[in-house]
Amino acid sequence: MNSAIIKGTGHYTPEHILTNADLEKIVDTSDEWIQTRTGIQERRVLNGHNDIGLSGMATNAARDAIDDAGLEPKDIEAVIMATVTPDYRLPATATLVQHNLGIGRVALMDIVAACTGFLYGLSVSRAFITCGMYKNVLVIGGEHLTSITNYEDRTTCVLFGDGAGAAVVSRGEPSDNGRGILATYLAGDGQYKDLLHIPLGGSKNPFTNDNAHLPGRHVHMDGREIFKLAVKEMADAAEHVLEQAGCKPSDIDMVIPHQANHRIIEALRRRLNVPEDRVYSNIQSYGNTSSASVPIALDEARRTGVVKEGSLVLSTAFGGGLVWGSALYRL
Ligand code: ACO
After folding, report:
1. How many whole angstroms from 223 Cα to the centroid of ligand 1?
2. 78: Cβ below 6 Å to ligand 1?
3. Is 248 helix (H, G, I), strand (E, B) or coil?
4. How far is C-alpha 5 from the geometric centre of its chain's CA atoms?
5. Residue 299 CA: distances (Å) to CA of 9, 61, 230, 263, 307
6. Structure confidence at residue 209 (pLDDT)
7. pLDDT by residue (tens digit) across 53-86?
8. Greatest C-alpha distance within the chain
9. Strands 78-82 and 107-111
10. By the 8 A CB rule, do 320 and 196 touch?
11. Ligand 1, atom 13: nearest CA belongs to which residue?
12. Ligand 1: distance of its center to the CA of 155 in Å?
């Protein structure tokens, strides 16, 4: 079987910074509450709908990942875009990225798996490559979350930020020995669909003149319930891939988890029993960027030398659906 290796990564976040002090002026909250309960200090946000949009952020992240892999856009044979905030309901954002970068007429698809979207994309890319269908697949996780955030709801608006991250997953060579995506695990359960959802704007409850201004057009979330499920399912998912690959938590060089809340990350760390310096977190700078959070963190960790070729990395994520999953990979 072919191996599938992460050959290059990239990320992009908007220049504009929304700080906790800015949010104190908008809703009844405080820097102290946000930092203590979430670990977030600031987040990057697009400057409204006239900015470069999700496709612009995804294009920038993807360009860097292709360059980092030492490839050209023409080498990419499939684009997998994970997002819950596409520029349009139709067409898929993958088509916009393909066109922006001058990638050929290849397989283009969007995946809707919320914060787990990048790991779903990674798993699909691995399947494409190991079965011999493609050699180079571009996987992007990106979100314009502030476009679905209600800035009158303090329980959600302090959490979210915008950004995109990308990886090129390629067929490994014999000389890459030991590198590659070693195991993935994907799961979900629709019984929890109302814990995190956008009630309006889909085909079941479309926008009308009467409802388009209502809060139902934004994200609704039962944060407390999600918190409990997130810790359990992320940790269980992590254990699944370790078992599949025959590894132990002590083998892991770095855990790069979904960045939703520093307390979730800390609870996960304790469950896995890994030391603090083996868990990567950048939530303080970006907040929760959903499907973008793992690839942004992975690219940052690679570019700053926190992880390097040969590092064994575990990523695990959890999000609306609910869906969750994990991946174990040697860089
Ligand atoms: N500022 C001040 N007070 C606040 C704020 C705020 N921004 N938000 C809530 N509070 C208040 C609440 O009203 C409540 O007050 P009360 O006790 O008087 O009723 C109190 O703080 C505690 O509220 P909780 O909801 O219990 O706070 P908790 O410690 O659970 O933290 C949080 C809330 C941060 C949302 C946490 O539950 C969490 O991170 N949950 C997981 C979120 C997540 O991971 N979502 C999934 C991914 S998102 C996606 O898929 C797009």
Report:
1. 5
2. no
3. coil
4. 18
5. 5, 10, 23, 23, 9
6. 86
7. 999 999 999 999 999 999 999 999 999 999 999 9
8. 62
9. parallel
10. yes
11. 155
12. 5
